[in-house]
Amino acid sequence: MNRLASLYYSLHDGLFGVLRHLDWLAPLALRLYLVPVFWLAGIQKIRGMENTIEWFGNPDWGLGLPFPALLAHLAAYTEAIGALLLLLGLATRWVALPLLVTMAVAAFAVHWQNGWAAIADSGAEEIAVRLGAAQELLREHGNYTWLTEHGNLVILNNGVEFAATYFIMLLALLYMGGGRFVSADYYLSRLYPRRIFLRPKMLD
Hints:
Helices cover 69% and strands 0% of the residues.
């Protein structure tokens, strides 16, 4: 048993010890994945701010949130500015916090009632019937080949899947930071080491 444990740890340390030198890859990949997600979401809200405010505040077909103008601006600019900061790796942990809030609000206020899946299961009988009807209509009255040239038709379920996924990715960045070598945070921390500012004052 001791020999097996020794062999396991030798293999473990040999393999993952090498990977420690590449620990900057994971936060970089997370940041670059999230940049277009939040940039497009934020810019879309900003460009259609009147519609965004109406959607935030309308209790019938929207979110029915209080102070819709304030919350719409906060959400839109948090996403757009947050995307730029993620791209630079600047204030990564700080910007992850408000983005986590926006994802939590989106998950519970927008997607929760639709369940988990973002895309409806096309194998489910109820979904398959509706999808088949849509396909028949498009084959008869539209250019079905052109419409499906870049992918098959699906029915949007609009569940919490994507919001939860982005939340988890942001949570990882909250703990990891922007990453060594590939973030502004890393170089700022080397330029202005925290020990300089947290050093106890010398008594005269």
